[in-house]
Recover the amino acids of this structure.
């Protein structure tokens, strides 16, 4: 496998885009990424499209081919990939694999989702396809319910963290406020989180990510294509993909030996650390999958950023803030930036690249190495990517 | 890219499986393929799952992870891929790529679909997601209507072939009759085809593939894993994947410069021929995407098996029969074997492997090289695979 670089990234704002289709959003993100990468579109060799609920909420599949046609890409392999909320990360990993394996020299990963036009019940029904419907669907649980139960399991092991959990929300909302791509940044207090409407006890409205439209894209190339741009210290410098790992975990609740940890995250992260020699202490920031506030706590522990049981404490102490010990979700994360499902994993890559270029509106000082983490279902699919400044 | 071999294949019968879920069917096919390949399941390094309408017709996504869990596969990358009716072929091509690129040593591609429980209108609505819904969906056409129009375009270029087109159906139905996996084999006459109910003028019921459930799987490995089994002339001998190409074409009707040809097929086939030096005259048989009788005619011309305008004539003259000049769809094809959409491309691989092993119930004499062709939407996605007996 050869070294792979991110030559360019693009993204729409995450939020509501009533006038744009799923494909329109994807094309916008691709146009941005192609411009950023300074490549001609006719040299692109593969397109991977991350999407989860397009068929059900928009009646449109064949998204990869449609988007390639609309974006003027050549007659290349165009593939939609799906792994629930990890679909975007899976698209990134496959575009990386295409270049790393020399299957092609330049590949694009795009993720796009369109959800805000649908009713909440339609969205809930569509998202429930990420459960094992025979085993967990029959319970009547939706995802907020599942993560509410996970909170209760966590509480039984580590004690009441409800108040400190609100600090996770406060942090991410504040980060989102200064991220121009974010849907729901806000300056709110712990009290306001705890006064927001109950969704699935003990998770309240602000503990849950919003329903979002949006798209993000990444252009991946070999070193040859970017070598002239490395060391220039410009605002569009390339970023090295040090590792891109995809794992699978347990698809149903009762299959987990410990609901306070996702084995797919633990395994993916361990493979990244083992294969690169880079460990959690070497990371300058992490963009992780905080679909709910409690998920950020679990993820931060699974990734090894924080000792078990201390995720919420670290957030409450400011240790995961932009200028803390280990900045987590400086973008605002899913909670504040939004969660257009198939786009989320690529939105994380976009944010990480801006950090490593020194461009971010919530810039982490001297950021050289960042990690992104995208999770699907009840932990059935996970991708973890490790990115480094090309001149680091 | 290293050489890749098919070490094992598995398949359910195509048809109605009311007692089995989409995942059950996939697991059955994988179990068969693993047994056939004589591998341990813990050495599998990647799973690709071809599926198109599982989310809409069964409410279940995350099919790759769920199936891997159910089949006892390890913590490997598990990815659902989608390209409408070409989803199975895309799964095969990605499993091939995983092994060819040394990303892993053993990969499984499985395709599964479950459709027969749904109403015809639900199935039609789900399949329509393979159209560009903004441009073609608004016309009110369904796929039989689109291919009826394609027939009319073909007729305007090449003359009335209605009667000879029925010979395509008669051939495939007859082949299906002796294929134990086929859903709708039959011994019927040209007159019976033409007396069957009208679906979309001039296409009648027997011109259209049925609605099917089913799954098929393939185990792909490097040469190291099969070398001891080559030259043994046994009924489970490995098969070489000489080429596996994926292309994209035009996603909407008005975008085609010629509706009597799919550019994605022409391009994919040409790349296979150019990269291997093997041409259409070297093929011993072809399994191609005959979702409608007229599609077999177009495909056979696009692949270069038959001169333009002569596809139906060749069928009527018996030249595409099992013992004809170029056997087309000795399995019965989609028209008779069935079309569980996401499984179809892998069902074609299954059939081709049985031919190359000399096991097929409709055996082509001395078959050494076979080609499979899987098409999605109105030609938006295509895969073409070239397979050869490992001892040829």
């Amino acid at each position: 496998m050869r070294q792979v670089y991110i030559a360019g990234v693009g993204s729409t704002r995450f939020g509501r885009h009533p006038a744009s289709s799923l494909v329109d959003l994807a094309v916008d993100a691709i146009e941005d990424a192609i411009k950023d990468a300074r490549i001609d579109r006719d040299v692109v060799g593969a397109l991977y499209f991350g999407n989860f609920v397009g068929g059900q909420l928009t009646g449109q599949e064949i998204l990869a081919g449609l988007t390639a046609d609309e974006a003027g890409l050549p007659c290349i392999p165009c593939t939609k990939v799906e792994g629930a909320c990890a679909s975007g990360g899976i698209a990134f990993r496959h575009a990386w694999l295409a270049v790393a394996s020399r299957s092609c020299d330049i590949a694009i990963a795009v993720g796009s989702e369109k959800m805000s036009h649908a009713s909440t019940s339609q969205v809930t029904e569509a998202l429930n396809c990420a459960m094992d419907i025979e085993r967990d669907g029959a319970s009547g649980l939706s995802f907020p319910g599942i993560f509410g139960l996970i909170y209760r399991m966590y509480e039984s092991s580590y004690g009441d963290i409800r108040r400190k959990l609100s600090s996770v929300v406060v942090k991410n909302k504040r980060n989102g406020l200064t991220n121009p791509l974010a849907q729901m940044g806000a300056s709110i207090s712990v009290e306001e989180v705890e006064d927001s409407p109950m969704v699935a006890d003990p998770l309240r409205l602000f503990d849950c990510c919003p329903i979002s439209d949006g798209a993000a894209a990444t252009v991946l190339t070999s070193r040859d294509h970017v070598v002239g741009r490395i060391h220039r210290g410009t605002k569009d410098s390339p970023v090295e993909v040090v590792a891109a790992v995809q794992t699978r975990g347990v698809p149903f609740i009762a299959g987990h030996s410990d609901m306070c940890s996702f084995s797919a995250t633990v395994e993916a992260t361990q493979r990244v650390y083992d294969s690169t020699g880079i460990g959690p202490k070497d990371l300058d920031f992490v963009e992780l999958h905080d679909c709910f506030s409690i998920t950020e706590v679990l993820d931060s522990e699974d990734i090894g950023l924080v000792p078990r049981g201390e995720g919420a404490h670290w957030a409450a102490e400011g240790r995961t803030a932009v200028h803390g010990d280990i900045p987590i979700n400086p973008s605002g994360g899913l909670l504040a930036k939004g969660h257009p499902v198939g786009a989320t994993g690529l939105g994380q890559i976009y944010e990480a690249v801006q950090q490593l270029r020194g461009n971010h509106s919530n810039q982490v000082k001297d950021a050289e190495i960042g990690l992104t983490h995208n999770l699907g279902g009840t932990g059935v699919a996970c991708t973890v990517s490790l990115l480094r400044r090309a001149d680091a």
